[in-house]
Amino acid sequence: MMVCEYKPGLEGIPAAQSSISYVDGQKGLLEYRGIRIEELAEKSTFLETAYLLIWGVLPSKEELETFEHEVRYHRRIKYRIRDMMKCFPESGHPMDALQASAAALGLFYSLRDLHNPVYIRDSVVRLIATIPTMVAAFQLMRKGNDPVRPRDDLDYSANFLYMLDEQEPDPLAARIFDICLILHVEHTMNASTFSARVTASTLTDPYAVVASAVGTLGGPLHGGANEEVIQMLEEIGSVENVRPYIENCLERKSRIMGFGHRVYKVKDPRATILQKLAEQLFEKFGYDKNYDIAQEMERVVEEKLASKGIYPNVDFYSGLVYKKMGIPTDLFTPIFAIARVAGWLAHWKEQLAENRIFRPTQVYNGLHEVTYTPIDQR
Ligand code: SDX
Question: 315 catalytic, yes or no?
Fold first, then answer.
């Protein structure tokens, strides 16, 4: 068997064949099932895009209405999951609450029937429908309040924003939030999607697949960066402090959150769209001085790191959008997960269609023939 050279982080090594999405990191191009994200962001909705990714085609009007109806009427979570969440510490991170709740959902649907299209569709609908409710429920419960019931008269994004604070959201904010979900739904073989595929390849249930991916997404080098970006902008505090802050990061060889990408060596196209969405919100709801700081960061980082292909990624501007919507910072990554569940489920289906359990090899650099030393001689 040919042994390839070891590549840390499997950099540049294809882990799967996939037709779900495509990234050109040099051109800054992202397509979902061949459609550019700029077009989907302008013309589609999150649920329509989720359908496209999972079933491979844009739905007809009837197919979309049926899917939307099914998701709408599966938004409520089991009272036992709500009771379980009431035992979570208020200080716990919402990503940990989400991972536990997603795994718990599997307890109610333990009969795995992975070859049954009805089981697959039901699992897809349940997970896409309930993840936002779980995130919103933890948010209210950690403040000592009862969670609110989903509102069937509101669409997917408006309902999530409503469940966060029992206020019906501004239509512009709801539409912009829905576009944010489109921008975050899928991104080829990122760490959490790879995690989802590895878990799926063992033929476990989709709830375990999603719980595994949620755990992976939470790290600050992946989905957790959006939360860190806002904290960084607040810490910098003024445009004048940007350059010294960046120079200090570079001296300490520490990573600047929201910049850099394993694939994009130009500005992440999602960051460009998110910037415009932020500007729309500022126009309607008032300016955020963090945007001046962010734009100065982009200028200084380009001056110093463009040669390494370090530019803003999806996490750099998303936090400014969510913050302007009044969303707590530690919910930014759970929102990333609300979107990405559809991408993970698309990969789950694709993995099952032509499955081979992941079992890579390693380059062993340890010892051999070592003699056991009795404890009284160590
Ligand atoms: C997401 O993979 C996906 O598609 C992910 C994602 C998705 O949609 O699923 O796009 C979402 O995770 C976006 C990334 C969010 N993470 C961050 O913003 C954290 C900060 N970024 C970095 O940690 C980093 O850029 C990574 C992890 C995102 C990518 O790192 P790589 O590809 O492993 O790059 P590397 O570590 O090999 O760095 C190459 C060089 C190094 O310099 P040298 O040692 O060669 O001199 O670039 C430097 C790094 O020091 N570098 C940075 C940097 N990122 C890379 N220097 C300063 N700040 C940074 N952010």
Answer: yes
**Cβ pair 218, 93 in contact under 8 A:** yes
Measured in Å, residue 162 CA sits from the centre of ligand 1 at 34
The runs of H, that is alpha helices, within 218-365 are 225-236, 242-251, 269-285, 290-305, 314-324, 332-353
The one catalytic residue in 178, 205, 268, 315 is: 315
Of the candidates 178, 184, 187, 261, the residue annotated as catalytic is 261
CA distance 316 to 298: 9
Q: Give the C-alpha separation, 318 to 223, whole Å.
A: 11
Residue 261 falls in the annotated catalytic set:
yes
Task: Give the chain's domains with CATH numbers.
Answer: 19-222+328-353 (1.10.580.10), 225-324 (1.10.230.10)
The CA 260 to ligand 1 mean position distance, Å, reads 4
pLDDT digits 0-9 by tens, 62-75: 999 999 999 999 99
* pLDDT tens sequence across 253-304: 999 999 999 999 999 999 999 999 999 999 999 999 999 999 999 999 999 9
Atom 36, ligand 1: which residue's CA is nearest?
262
**Which residue, by CA, sits nearest to atom 41 of ligand 1?**
308
Per the structure block, which two tokens stand in for 6? 């070891």
According to DSSP, the β-strands at 21-24 and 35-36 are unpaired
DSSP 3-state of 159:
helix
- pTM greater than 0.90 (yes/no): yes
Report CA dihedral (202, 207, 208, 210) to the nearest 10 degrees: 100
Cα separation, 283 vs 82, whole angstroms? 38
